[in-house]
Amino acid sequence: MKGFTRGSIRTCSGEYAGAMPSSSTTTGPTSAAKAASAGKSPSARSELNKRKADLLQRTTRFAKEVRTFVRKTPRTIASLGDCRRLVYASGAIGSHYISADEAPTRQDFLRQVGDCRKEAKHSVHWLHLLDANLEESSEKMRFSLLGEAQELEKIFGAIVGKTLANAKKNEAEA
Length: 174
Description:
The protein is 74% helix and 7% strand. The protein is mostly helical. A two-stranded antiparallel ribbon has the order 1-2. The longest helix is centred in the last third of the chain and has 38 residues, at 136-173. The model is unreliable at 1-32 and 34-38 (pLDDT under 50).
């Protein structure tokens, strides 16, 4: 394949396999971020990396807190299914964010961040459904998780909007 080099995808046996775009042909957010940060000071680049790490930690913390909440939720036929879907959605937010951070193209990045936003919306939905028969402490935790899920939804929506705006701006300049 033209423009591709051996990548860092590991197979089950631990060997490297697959093709990843080389840095000279990559048009994704990773290389775009590198190009944009090339003119920035090292402190500006470190701030960007710090924000990325903070968002990853935030999504991980959200998923862990959801699991703690689910353990405290009363077991009913309805809540078992809702809790299962909530746990999946909360974990998928961070998973899609990791994939977005390593996306080779802008389209892949936008799709993965869009999936983050979608899973955050799903988390909000399942948290709304899990409001029956909760103790006071669980209800407070549900309310807190609901706020965090809504904030994550807004954050990922803003990332999509800003990425699209930057793409349009770059096309206009070219």
